[in-house]
Amino acid sequence: MAKITKRGDDYSQWYIDVVMRAEMADYAPVRGCMVIRPWGYAIWERMQRALDDMFKATGHQNAYFPLLIPKSFLEKEAEHVEGFAPECAVVTHGGDKLLDEPLVIRPTSETIIWAMYKKWIQSWRDLPLLYNQWCNIVRWEMRTRLFLRTAEFLWQEGHTAHATAQEATEEAERMLGVYRTFTEQWMAMPVLAGRKSDSQKFAGAVTTYTIEALMQDGRALQAGTSHYLGQNFAKAFDVRFQNKEGALEYVYASSWGVSTRLVGALVMSHSDDAGLVLPPRLAPIQVVIVPILKADADNAAIRTAAARLAEPFGCAQDKPFGDAVRVHVDDRDNVSPGWKFNEWELKGVPIRVELGPKDLAAGRVVLVRRDTGEKTPFPQGELALRVPEILDEMQSALYERAKKRLEENCRTVETYDDFKRRVAEVGGFLFAPWCGRPECEARVTEETKATIRLLPDDAQEGSACMVCGKGPAKRVPFARAY
Ligand SMILES: [Zn+2]
Question: Any residues with CB less than 8 A from the CB of 472 and at least 6 apart, and which?
Answer without folding.
Answer: 435, 461
